[in-house]
Amino acid sequence: MHYIVNRNAQINSGYHKVHTIDCNIGPRKENVVDLGECMCLVEAQAKAKDLYKHVNTCKYCCKDTSCEK
Fold first, then answer.
1. What is the average per-residue pLDDT within 6-30?
2. Does the N-terminal or the C-terminal CB of the chain have fewer CB atoms within 10 Å?
3. Are the beta carbons of 15 and 57 closer than 8 angstroms?
C-alpha cells in the first residue's frame, strides 16, 4: 500500500496524520510528504516518525494495522 503523511500538524493536537494515497479526506497535494510503498501501516508510521515526532493515523483509511509477510 502507498502512504502519505500530512506536512501540517493538526491544530488541536500537533500530530501529523498518515493516510493512504487514495484517502478521500487526505491533505492537499502541496501538504503531502510521500512515504512510498509500505508493507503495512506500522511501517508507514515508522517512516513518518523519522520525519515528525508526533504521528497518528487517519481513522477512515488506516484501519488495517497487520503486517503479514
1. 96
2. C
3. no
DSSP 7-59: SSPPTTT-PEEEEETT-TTPPPGGGEEEEEE-SSHHHHHHHHHHH-SSEEE-T
Amino acid at 47: K
Closest CA to 35 of 11, 27, 60, 64: 27
Domain borders along the chain are 2-57
Cα gap 9→63, rounded to integer Å: 20
Write the DSSP symbol of residue 61. Answer: T
The answer on pLDDT for 17 being more than 60 is yes
Closest residue by Cα to residue 62 from 25, 34, 33, 29:
25
Length of the chain: 69
